[in-house]
Specification:
InterPro entries: Acyl_CoA_acyltransferase, GNAT_dom. The chain is α+β, with helices and mostly antiparallel strands and about 190 residues long. The chain has four helices and eleven strands.
Length: about 190
């Protein structure tokens, strides 16, 4: 597996992967699919570029220059927590550990940079996804955020009761490697 930071020219490929993972119709019923809650594209090329301006997107490929099979957005919150979003794995390659691998890689990078914890939000109605993250050490903090109903980059919600729960995982402090998450360069 090869992990690398996305570049702006990767936006179309990332958007296609995320939309296939989160909203694909037909047989693609991977663990990230949320089409019963939200319809329409999960993101767009512009949405991906917007995320790249606020952090970075780590890509997973099976081989150099191969297709993108997974991705996750990473940014740093004001308290130093590494905030992840938009974890996606190609539905055709799910269930082989790719999602777990990309989460572990980002957590390894966070520990190496001295981050105190990981943070994320999950739609409250996604019980299986919440359980998946709990098995990886993430716990609900008790904080609940309103769903961004007015954000055109998340699709069209099909229910009026969507909420986001905040989940965190405490990290042990690792070695002295200090990396700037926004650009992936040493400080």
């Amino acid at each position: 597996m090869i992990f690398e930071d996305a570049l702006p020219h990767d936006a179309a490929g990332i958007a296609a992967l995320v939309n296939r993972a989160y909203r694909a119709a037909g047989g693609a019923d991977g663990w990230t699919n949320e089409r019963e809650l939200i319809e329409g594209p999960r993101t767009s090329d512009d949405g991906v570029r917007r995320l790249l301006e606020r952090g970075r997107i780590v890509l997973l490929r099976e081989e150099a220059d191969g297709p993108i099979i997974g991705c996750i957005h990473v940014a740093i919150d004001d308290d130093g927590a590494w905030h992840t979003s938009m974890l996606a794995v190609d539905p055709d390659t799910q269930a082989v550990g790719s999602g777990k691998a990309i989460k572990q890689e980002v957590e390894r990078q966070a520990m190496s940079a001295g981050a105190p914890r990981m943070r994320m939000e999950v739609i409250r109605q996604r019980a299986a996804l919440i359980a998946w993250h709990r098995r990886r050490g993430y716990e609900p903090t008790g904080a609940i955020l309103p769903f961004p109903y007015d954000d055109p980059f998340v699709g069209r919600p099909l229910r009026p009761d969507l909420e986001l729960i905040v989940m965190e995982k405490r990290l042990p402090v690792a070695g002295p490697d200090k990396t700037n998450v926004a650009r992936g360069t040493p400080q």
